[in-house]
Amino acid sequence: MGKKPFLLAISGCKNSGKTTLITKLIPKLCEKGYKVATIKHDGHDFQGDEVGTDTYEHKKAGAYGTAIFSNNKFMIIKEEKSVDETYFIKLFPEADIILLEGFKASDYPKLEIVRKGNSSKSVCSKKNLIGILSDLKVIDGNYNIIDLNNIDFITEKILDYMKSYEQ
């Protein structure tokens, strides 16, 4: 059996910049040779298909699930109760790193974004909190604050933690 992917949550309040950060981290991690996957939790019911597509029409007609695939990719939309991230983690066994967007109350290793004009204190579970990514100089509590805009440093911090986590 091969090694399991390293799981890292990118957490923070709503609109703190989690997606923006993840889209900056992915190319940096890929440049370093890592295979990266992402899993996002949405606390609301999301629309995963576009109006007018065949799969949208299938769901609209009453199918509880629909799938579309080509030679290179697939997408499944399925109604199922009580699904959590562990179901999706299993779908990416070949990944080196899986970035989990959200999961602030989880026990996963995490980096939390605390950003000016959005939040001023940590809202995450302190367990496995690697550091706070921020554009603020001081945050309530005793935290390792990392410059939110220094993507190269954040990438290195992730890789250093990943290597120590594997040992």
TrEMBL record:
NCBIfam families, A to Z: mobB
Protein name per the record: Molybdopterin-guanine dinucleotide biosynthesis protein B
GO biological process terms, semicolon-separated: Mo-molybdopterin cofactor biosynthetic process
SUPFAM superfamilies to which the protein is assigned, alphabetical: P-loop containing nucleoside triphosphate hydrolases
Entry-linked Pfam families: MobB
Domain Molybdopterin-guanine dinucleotide biosynthesis protein B (MobB): 8-135
Gene Ontology molecular function: GTP binding
Lineage summary: Bacteria, Bacillati, Bacillota, Clostridia, Peptostreptococcales
InterPro entries from the UniProt entry: MGD_biosynthesis_adapter, MobB_dom, P-loop_NTPase
